[in-house]
Design brief:
Blueprint: H1 2-25, H2 34-56, E1 58-63, E2 74-77, H3 83-91, E3 95-100, H4 109-114, E4 119-121, H5 126-142, E5 146-149, H6 167-175, E6 179-184, E7 200-206, H7 217-235
Parallel strand pairs: 1-7, 2-5, 2-6, 3-4, 3-5
Antiparallel strand pairs: 6-7
Helix pairs in contact: 1-2, 2-3, 5-6, 6-7
């Protein structure tokens, strides 16, 4: 019962903050340069991380921030919940996120996303989506933005495993930038398919950048997957499949 009450309190703050963003920040954001938009709209993400910790009794254990590279990179992380989409926006801004096009249709939230130049994909057209990721991903990296790509392609429940896609590694190899691997157990605290949040330790591990120069995308992907999965074995409360 306590978790339910905490979750209700959390979502009250969640939607109140979203309303504030829509009323006060969104009308201003289009007139700012891209870097200014990120700084302004990321205030919402910072608030959500803080409010989630306070309202739901979650403690953060984030290690490896010293591995963040100075220049642009391709960030690849496992995908379990909404929390990591919030955290990864503020971990190394500005970052362009590869996401499903439907998110851009959401009131306020989607409007803000549009202003941050994401790569929005129509998942009903996979061939076109792959071409779009490869083309626009390299373009974003060349302008100084990092690119966030979830190699699993969709949310995967804790304790389950899905084949990793190599599009992020291909983009990194083509642009000549490193891949920054990130592992977390956010789905155990913020479930992807249930609104009730769970107290406990939310662990994040940020790995050393994986260089791409002179390497194939398959080699890079193998390193990314091996590192993320090894970290998940250590930080997950729910056992990982073999």
């Amino acid at each position: 019962m306590k978790q339910v009450v905490r979750s209700v309190v959390f979502y009250a703050g969640y939607f109140a903050a979203l309303l504030v963003i829509g009323v006060l920040f969104l009308p201003i954001a289009p007139f700012l340069p891209l870097a200014g938009r990120y700084r302004l709209l990321n205030l919402y993400n910072y608030f959500l991380m803080f409010w989630f910790r306070i309202a739901c009794g979650v403690r953060y254990d984030i290690q490896g921030a010293h591995h963040l590279p100075d220049g642009p990179c391709v960030i690849q992380a496992n995908h379990q919940s909404e929390w990591e989409t919030v955290f990864l926006q503020v971990m190394k801004p500005p970052v362009c996120t590869v996401l499903k096009r439907e998110l851009l249709r959401l009131p306020i939230f989607g409007w803000g996303l549009r202003l941050l130049h994401p790569i929005s994909l129509d998942r009903s057209k996979p061939a076109r989506a792959i071409k779009q990721v490869l083309g626009q991903g390299v373009e974003r990296l060349n302008t100084g933005l990092s690119v966030l790509i979830f190699p699993e392609g969709t949310r995967v429940e804790p304790g389950e495993r899905r084949r990793y896609n190599k599009s992020g590694s291909v983009v990194a190899c083509r642009a000549g930038v490193p891949v920054l691997p990130v592992a977390h157990n956010a789905g155990e605290r913020w479930p992807g398919r249930h609104w009730v949040k769970r107290p406990g330790v939310l662990r994040v591990r940020i790995g050393e950048p994986i260089e791409t120069a002179g390497r194939t995308s398959d080699e890079v992907l193998a390193d990314v997957e091996a590192w993320i999965e090894a970290q998940l074995v250590e930080i997950s409360d729910i056992p990982r499949p073999q």
